[in-house]
Amino acid sequence: MKLGRLNHVAIAVPDLEKATAIYRDTLGGSVTEPQALPEHGVTVVFVDLGNTKVELLEPLGEGSPIGAFLEKNPSGGMHHVCYEVDDIIVARDRLKAGGARVLGDGEPKTGAHGKPVLFLHPKDFCGTLVELEQA
Amino acid sequence: MKLGRLNHVAIAVPDLEKATAIYRDTLGGSVTEPQALPEHGVTVVFVDLGNTKVELLEPLGEGSPIGAFLEKNPSGGMHHVCYEVDDIIVARDRLKAGGARVLGDGEPKTGAHGKPVLFLHPKDFCGTLVELEQA
C-alpha cells in the first residue's frame, strides 16, 4: 500500500456555529454551509485550505461517535486525520496482515464524501485515529 | 487576514524510530531522515503526503515543549496544526485585536522550516493548538 494525500484533518467542536465563525471571521478561512449527516451522527462544515481541508464536526442526535471525545475535551480538539489510498480493500488487507486493527466490522462504510472509508485503531498509529478514504 | 494552506499536522510520539517505521513500512509513506532541533526541544521526521506533510515529533533534551503532552498521551497523539499566512505580523496583530491569545511573548520565532512562526492558544481555536507560519 502507498499512503496518499491528506484528505482532511477533523476537529470535533461543541458548537459548530461558533467554530465556523472562528475559522471564517477570525482566521479568514473559506467555509461551507453546515451539512447534517444523521447516518454518521455529526453535522459537518468544511474549511477549504487550498491543498486540503479541515472538517469541523459537531455531534448530531443520540450516541454520536464524537460524544465521548467531547466529554473528555469540552473545548473540542483534533479528532482524526484522513489519508487517501488508491484501493481501500488492498490497504485494509495489507494492514490487517501486518497486525493493525481496523475498527468496527472491518468493512468500508460510505463516508462524508460518498466514498468508502475505514477507521484504524489509534493505539496502532501513534495515538492518532486514522481514517482511510478511497481516492 | 486570509487563512492559507495546511503546512503540516504535527503528531507527538514517544518513539520516533517506531513511529517512522509505522508511517514508512505499515502505511507506505515517504519519510525524511530524523532531524534534531535542539533549540526547539524536538527531533523531527516529515512524512510527505503529496499535498501536505505530517510532522512526527519526539522530545529532545530536558524540558521539551511536547513533554507534558506525552505524559498525558503516552502513546502519542495529534499535537498541533500549522497553517500558512502571507504576513505573520499582520495576522498576529489582527488576531490580537480580535481578542485571540498568542503564546509566549507574541514575537515570531524561527520554525523547523527556517520561517517565522507563532503559536495560538488552543482555548481560542476549538481546543486545537494552532501554529501560524509565514508562507
List the helices and strands and how they pair.
2 copies of one chain form a homodimer.
Chain A: E1 6-12, H1 16-26, E2 30-31, E3 35-37, E4 42-48, E5 53-59, H2 67-72, E6 77-85, H3 88-97, E7 109-110, E8 116-120, E9 130-134
Parallel strand pairs in A: 1-5, 6-9
Antiparallel strand pairs in A: 1-6, 2-4, 3-4, 4-5, 7-8, 8-9
Offer a concise description of the structure:
In chain A, 20% of the residues lie in helices and 35% in strands. Chain A is α+β, with helices and mostly antiparallel strands and 135 residues long.
Commentary on this structure:
Chains A, B: This is methylmalonyl-CoA epimerase. Chains A, B: Belongs to the methylmalonyl-CoA epimerase family. Chains A, B: It catalyses: (R)-methylmalonyl-CoA = (S)-methylmalonyl-CoA. The structure is a homodimer of 135-residue chains. With 135 residues, the first copy, chain A, is an alpha+beta fold. Chain A has a single domain, classed as 2,3-Dihydroxybiphenyl 1,2-Dioxygenase, domain 1. In chain A, 20% of the residues lie in helices and 35% in strands. Chain A has helices spanning 16-26, 67-72, 88-97, and strands at 6-12, 30-31, 35-37, 42-48, 53-59, 77-85, 109-110, 116-120, 130-134. In chain A, strands 1, 2, 3, 4, 5, 6, 7, 8 and 9 form a 9-stranded mixed beta sheet that branches. The longest helix of chain A is centred in the N-terminal third of the chain and has 11 residues, at 16-26. The model of chain A has no long low-confidence stretch (mean pLDDT 96). The interface between A and B is large, with 42 and 42 residues.
